[in-house]
Design goal:
Blueprint lengths: L8 E4 L6 E4 L6 E4 L4 H4 L2 E6 L3 E3 L7 E4 L6 E4 L6 E7 L3 E5 L13 E4 L1 H4 L7
Parallel strand pairs: 3-10
Antiparallel strand pairs: 1-2, 2-5, 3-4, 4-9, 6-7, 7-8, 8-9
The chain binds zinc ion.
Zinc ion binds next to loops.
Length: 125
């Protein structure tokens, strides 16, 4: 893994309203072809929730929920950037690695997850 930046990493949405700092190793990135990921282009970077700090406090974030009440797809209500997902087992969250500042995603090693076929069936839009 070629990490272009030092920890902690800073992530932001396109308009800058939401900024997040993550102090974790930048590895094990996963792209998924499920019904939501294929549309948003979310590039999963799963870390412990404790490693994540919201730099822009008390800002409005929009949340899309499907399947489970505890699984939130969080995105900026102004520019629409999908930046964070919550509700993973073991107090983990997933950041969108495409939002990391100063990192060219083309330099990152990315695995694929066949969410389209592997995930439990749900309402498929
Ligand atoms: Zn924004």
């Amino acid at each position: 893994m070629r990490a272009a930046m030092q920890r902690p990493y800073r992530l932001s949405c396109h308009c800058g309203e939401i900024a997040i700092e993550v102090d974790a190793e930048l590895s094990r990135l996963v792209e998924c072809n499920c019904s939501t990921c294929r549309r948003s282009g979310f590039l999963h970077w799963k870390v412990d929730a404790a490693a994540v700090r919201l730099l822009t406090e008390k800002r409005r974030m929009s949340t899309y929920i499907w399947r489970g009440i505890g699984e939130g797809h969080h995105f900026c209500p102004t520019c629409g950037t999908a930046i964070l997902r919550s509700g993973y087992p073991g107090d983990r969250v997933s950041l969108n690695a495409r939002c990391i500042e100063g990192v060219d995603v083309f330099t990152l090693e990315v695995d694929r997850y066949d969410g389209r076929n592997d995930m439990p069936p749900g309402p498929l839009p």
